[in-house]
Write a structure and sequence with these properties.
2 copies of one chain form a homodimer.
Chain A lengths: L4 H8 L3 H16 L5 E2 L11 H13 L2 H5 L8 H15 L8 E4 L2 H12 L5 E5 L5 H8 L3 E5 L10 H7 L4 E6 L12 H18 L4 E5 L22 E6 L12 E5 L6 H15 L6 H10 L6 H17 L4 E2 L6 E5 L5 H9 L3 E2 L1 E2 L8 E5 L4 H17 L3
Parallel strand pairs in A: 1-11, 3-4, 3-5, 5-6, 6-7
Antiparallel strand pairs in A: 2-8, 7-8, 9-10, 10-13, 12-13
Helix pairs in contact in A: 3-11, 5-11, 6-7, 6-10, 12-14
Amino acid sequence: MGINQKMMGLGKKRSVIREIFEYGNKRKAQIGADKVFDFSLGNPSVPAPDCVNQTIKELIQSESSLALHGYTSAQGDAGVRRSIADYVSKTHGVEVSADNLYMTVGAAASLTVSLNAIAEPGDEFICFTPFFPEYRVFVEAAGGSLVSVPSRTSDFQLDLEALEKAVTENTKGVIVNSPNNPSGVVLTEESIAGLCSVLKRKSAEFGAPIYLISDEPYRELVYGDVKVPYLLNYYDNTLVCYSFSKSLSIPGERIGYILVSPTAENSADLYAAVCGAGRALGFVCAPSLFQKVAGRCVGQTADVSIYKKNRDLLLSALESYGYRCIKPDGAFYLFVESLEKDAYAFCEKAKEFELLLVPADDFGCPGFVRISYCVTTEQIQNALPAFEALAKAYKN
Amino acid sequence: MGINQKMMGLGKKRSVIREIFEYGNKRKAQIGADKVFDFSLGNPSVPAPDCVNQTIKELIQSESSLALHGYTSAQGDAGVRRSIADYVSKTHGVEVSADNLYMTVGAAASLTVSLNAIAEPGDEFICFTPFFPEYRVFVEAAGGSLVSVPSRTSDFQLDLEALEKAVTENTKGVIVNSPNNPSGVVLTEESIAGLCSVLKRKSAEFGAPIYLISDEPYRELVYGDVKVPYLLNYYDNTLVCYSFSKSLSIPGERIGYILVSPTAENSADLYAAVCGAGRALGFVCAPSLFQKVAGRCVGQTADVSIYKKNRDLLLSALESYGYRCIKPDGAFYLFVESLEKDAYAFCEKAKEFELLLVPADDFGCPGFVRISYCVTTEQIQNALPAFEALAKAYKN
């Protein structure tokens, strides 16, 4: 009796990322903020597009307090959902309606609500390495267990043979995240088509749907003319978990949605289960003002060209120093092979050069580190000599 | 395999309140909005105080986009928590700090996070009738079971003998809600002291803490000089679940907090479990802008005098027509004894007079109805002849 020990453990255990970030703050106090090159946090560094604050101002002027700050329906304001459904339909060539959308308190909530809507005891959920460590927390809290499937470390596309072996009759769902945190990799159409082919075959074999859960907060953060395949066009039993945190640079405001594919098996029942899970977890409705902001600003983004500039600068410099980098086509992370086997030791070594990097062990990829380039371009420029010196330290 | 059936059921089953509200909308379309007297929803009818929109405007002017809309720490912005802790300490004569506060996405989230922080399989949670029906959903989703203890139907204060019998070694917590939804009753100091005395004795007997969970979104909505005892002054193992939805009339914005008593057994561990549960359920952090609004507007309220005026008007009129009413000292609900045994049948009869009332069966109190007086005073005035006619219909 007493406290739930598992929850206490989750509350006490700081993530590695948070540990490094806290170390960085201390170190900055010691030697000056401009001398420490903190690449630990995945926190947008580009301001929200003007439409965000502009919309807030307009809504405050035009809407009554009760309409603006009052409850919306549990699934979200109908006008907002229509606006997002129209945008998604037009942009991705699908036919979805407001009734397929459920507004959420951001990507994490999109995932926990989706998982709780479908998970039953004994269910397994497959994730491909590298993956965001909170997936394990969310899957286990929903009563499922996480099955980790390694990606190809050459290019971090999916390893379909490994997937084939991992799918069992207990597999309830597969989580994909493209563009990926922490690798920045965008899954190719070939990877997606292969994945969907395996899942369709296995669903038929086991006589039960396997759900594809697409966690895509970084969808709009892609560079050049790279395409991010839209999963509804490839697979029926899909739940899209979206967040405006990164596209609109409003991660603190907690606004996103779940899109339940209209072509999913028993789609209306699945949608009802999403509503039920949101209710049981205590969400009531997504924040009203920011629902309306999302509805009006959908399709706009923060200035992505800054992230692209950062990527290009960092990638070409690090490759010239001899690092093996996975070229990121999206998100704001660069995945780099550690210069020694133990990525923790490598990150400790990097600290000697005031470089704060995150070992990817917790993402399921020992031997790699994540470098978050959602920082000022100036910080990257100033850090380059340190990256070069770090590489040299391993050549001696 | 497939969807989680329990969640689907929760998503499909509309609450009785929502059914009546939807009927009201249809009926209004038929005969005109001013002819239908809808008393079904507990939705604030008084605008937010000026400080809310004023603060939003000021923050947009003064804060950078990244600071205003960025992530806060998981437990909430430190300055906001300090401001609320100072207010609570001063107002209620307790000593709490920012480190005892965890910002949430409203009252429902305060409850689900608190319950998940402490619940383990087999745990029982006691609620006193009448209680908000979602308590059962939240308790069961956290893996516990709900034990319903009847209140005294004379005045809806606590029945301590019934409580005594209901507490077992499986009792993990007791949920109290004062001012109460749906009765409007404020628990007296006598009720609170008696409750705490039973729980202290039983905790000692069973050698394990029994937590008191105080759900108090209506704390500031009280009339006259009624005092709402602050539970931290009576009981150590207390979690206060607060929401700004009603006090600031911003129910759609989803902002509240959990206060973990600093004098609770292993208070730091309990607080960690709250953080862990928030993480596992997918909350990340409470909405950033409205955290800051809450921090600056704490202690202010929407114009409560309008609710008082409504209460006085409705209560005196209904009593003069012969209804037995429970005098509400707070919230915006009037609890009235049904004029026939079956409150559902009574509410059907009321519909003939275009009165939309909620039978209290789902609140655990058959034979009573809830009348939400968070409506315009004009609606109440216009509805009085209908209430009188309804009473007369039962005298013939």
